[in-house]
Specification:
Layout: E1 5-6, H1 15-21, E2 25-29, E3 44-47, H2 50-71, H3 81-95
Parallel strand pairs: 1-2, 2-3
């Protein structure tokens, strides 16, 4: 996949083909020899366990995605029940009980 991360898995590891198809980086097992055809500008993330690194990467992505999703949502601030009643009583006092305060149904 173009501009993707290549994750070598299984018996057939074809880093050269992934680079040809447009991969921009790859996970790579620490014990494996790095092929000579790998360009200098192609990052290899050397890891002890490729599968574990892939799972960790997925979890990190999901967590960051959920946090970004929360950041764009409306935030609500909850206070104690007694504080809510005090606030409601004050706001209700002026507009409902005293219709001449200028906060009527205009």
């Amino acid at each position: 996949m173009e501009k993707g991360l290549y994750i070598p898995a299984g018996d057939e590891v074809n880093l050269f083909r992934s680079i040809e198809k447009g991969a921009i980086a790859s996970l790579w097992h620490k014990g494996e020899e790095i092929p000579s055809f790998v360009p200098n500008h192609f990052p290899l993330f050397i890891v002890e366990d490729v599968y574990r690194a892939y799972v960790d990467l997925q979890e990190s992505y999901k967590q960051n995605y959920n946090q970004e999703k929360w950041e764009i949502m409306t935030k609500f601030i909850f206070s104690s029940e007694s504080e809510q009643h005090q606030t409601n009583d004050k706001s209700m006092e002026g507009s409902i009980l005293d219709p001449t305060d200028g906060m009527g149904g205009e």
